[in-house]
Amino acid sequence: MPEQRHPLTGQKPVQGDPTEEWEAEVVIIGGAVGGMGMAIALSTLGVSSVVLERHRQIQEINRGDALQPMGLSILERWGVLDRIVELGAYNLKEWTFWNPRLGYLGTWSFENLDFPFKYAKVLRHPKIHQAFSDVVVQRKEIQMHRGATVTTVLMNDDRITGVMGTLDDGAVFRARGRVVVGADGQTSHFREFLGIAAEQRYVYDHEYLMVFVDKPQIPELDSRGMRWITRNGLTVLIPLDGGTTLRVAVQIEKGSLPKWRKLTNTELLYQLKLRAPVLEKVSATLPGAHSYSVHWLHADQYVAHGAALVGDAAHLVHPGTAQGMNMAFCDADILAAVIRNGLRRRNLSDGVLRQYETIRKPVNLGTMEKSHAQTLHHTQTGLWHEIWGSRTYRWTLTPEHMLEMSKAVAGLYNPTAESTGLLKEVATV
User: Fold this and answer.
1) Which of 91, 316, 348, 380 sits in a 20 to 30 Å window from 339, CA-based?
2) For residues 367 and 332, what is the distance between their CA atoms, to the nearest angstrom?
């Protein structure tokens, strides 16, 4: 059967012949951190890839700053961690919880974990993106193409064989591979094309406003993040830029950003102090007045038609425990090993690729459920939560519970390509 062209959902299909032709063992749709992480994971195993990213430049994103201990161990194996450090990543040894009336509530600490990395690292997301980009250009196995918008999917019978689209200058490209990986984010057109449903597990009533302030010179914020649980919801203080700046993530009512944009700096600071009294003597501005919505969404499956989904294309998690980017690293780590083994055995059927789904999907579900449970506790609002909710939180934070949550936040319950044995030598058929 001749190769068929199908329009990608929401896109206009390519007409005519391509002027650019690329081929590799894997084609990756999406070249943000998740897509580049997939390419780097493959390259460490000697597998070639073509990465297609529609944006020409790295995008400014005011979230996705935290690299958890398990993520750091994977980035070290991929050869990315040194560049992360060079760009100014700041070690975070624990998260502490506070309430304006009750004071200290509890801690999630990484220091006592039985793991090589006893800290997280925080770095502004564009710098994390830059670190990945710097590594990608050094890997001969990776062809990175920016300004490449995928509009068409190529199929032979029931299997995807590649994609087509256009470059910024109007040129038509075609990229072929043995496997196509969708890393095109939370509104994944590729997931829609595959016919994979994604269940919205919960609809949250809030979003997060991002504000930058100078870091207060107090010991409670040295190598620590703070989470303030109040009747107004959750406010998170994240040290950035070598510990000199704070990103303040403020829980606001969904759809209320226009109201916050109208605040003067004095009014804004008053609202911040209500939520986090340690911000008493800082100044604050609203550059860009950015907020973002939060979701709990999970794809019904990760594999179909010779293709796979990773990262936000497969799952969206509330950021309360900062797991989204780290889940994407774990996805790429497992999928790269499964693909490498399938290539060696000359078998990349959906049945083989589903080994990735079998390993990752239940673990991702567990991670999202833990994050959701914490979210419901931390983001409750109103007088009842002020009187009883924070007290209940403090009373239930036993040492055993805090250690379990520290392990979960660190990502220690994620199997890796090493721990599953996927990296053992595979015989060539």
Assistant:
1) 316
2) 16
